[in-house]
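Feature request, filed as a ticket because there's no other form

It would be nice if the structure record came with a short human-readable summary line next to the tokens. Right now we just get the raw output. Example of a typical job, pasted below so the devs can see what we mean:
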Amino acid sequence: MNPAWPVVLADGDIALRPIRTRDQRAWRDVNRRNRDWLRPWEATVPPPSPGTPVGQRPTYRQMVRHLRKEAAAGRMLPFVIEYQGRLVGQLTVAGITWGSMCSGHVGYWVDKEVAGRGVMPTAVALATDHCFRVLGLHRLEVCIRPENGPSRRVVEKLGFREEGVRPRYLHIDGAWRDHLVFALTAEEVPDGMLRRWHQARRRTPGE
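Raw output as currently delivered:
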């Protein structure tokens, strides 16, 4: 069992909570409206051999069952993002590794309608503080396609370090794509990521 899960994290109008089976309609609605905006950044399953079609994505219910199993085993934190009580995206801390590494990686997407309102940086800050202060992880990383400007701005605003390029790292939108690696360790945010984000917003009104 995972003692740090399930959990709800919130800051003002923004909240992270566990994904649920009954979120299916809202989750599908957001995905459908944002299909063209999200497609260039979404993971795809590569074909098993030349000439075969790209693998099929799991159904929503299959996805939720898998995420719940991984969360219960302590390998993942599968959140949905709410803004003013409405589901607007998803954030997952995955690949959680213990032992001498104590690390995980963060992936996320958000409704284009609320982009630019600080929703995603706040969500990532909430998840980061939970991972470092409650879960006990030491390092988090975010891997982003170089072309994904909005996603890069999220980690840049929060002060994640750019560590380099991972060539052909993930299968995205039908091909193997290079990714930039951004990382952060617990020592770099001793007072908490959310506090640092709030301070940055006060220094730069409108963020």
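Something like this underneath would help us a lot:
The longest strand covers residues 86-97.
The chain has one domain: 9-203.
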